[in-house]
Amino acid sequence: MNRWKVIWVILVMILLVGGCSSKSAIDWEKEGDPFEKIKIEIISQSETNEGTVVEIGIHNETNHDIVDMNVALSYPIIRENGSTSNKERVNADNTLDVIEAGSIGIVKVLIPSSYGYERNWDAENPEIHIEGYFEKKSDVNSFGISGPIKAYLIDNP
Asked: 50 exposed, middle or buried (CB, 10 Å; 0-12, 13-18, 19+)?
């Protein structure tokens, strides 16, 4: 009788282990650079009493869903010999839980009226900061994009 218990335990373990499949890291060498497949669109920009509202469309042209995405904007600081990145960011009003492959997610960023105008910030050249995950939230699937928004615009060749 003990022998049958051992056989059943082994059989159950084999079924459990065999039935659980985990998706491995995405092979970007085969699929191409994902950052060339995530594009930004400025849908609208309007002035309100609180500041400037920028509506941003994020085009996911990858073959994978993007999950738990956070978006922020910042403006470079103008210096005598150019500009430097700004660590002060304005986060989007909403977080995108999922942007399915081939879809567009939309966020709104409210830039307060008082944000940076007295500090020599370059309002003409905003930088975008995006963090998220491909398919599921895990360290292996995490990504980040940070840089001039112009570099990621949908009509940028």
From this structure: exposed
What is the pTM for the complete model shown? 0.74
CB 113 within 8 A of CB 51: yes
Give me 90's structure tokens.
């304005």
87 class by beta-carbon count within 10 Å (0-12 exposed, 13-18 middle, 19+ buried):
exposed
Number of domains in the chain: 1
Domain contains 100 = yes
pLDDT in tens, 111-148: 887 776 556 888 788 999 999 999 888 888 888 889 89
Q: Are strands 127-134 and 82-84 parallel, antiparallel or unpaired?
A: unpaired
The CATH code of the domain that includes 55 is 2.60.40
Helix-strand-coil split of the chain, %, nearest 5: 20, 45, 35
82 sits in the region (left: phi over 0; alpha: psi -120 to 50; else beta) called left
For residue 30, being part of any structural domain is answered with: no
14 within some domain: no
Give the range of the structural domain holding residue 139, as residue numbers without chain letter: 44-152
Whether residue 97 lies inside any domain: the answer is yes
Tens of pLDDT, residues 58-68: 999 988 999 99
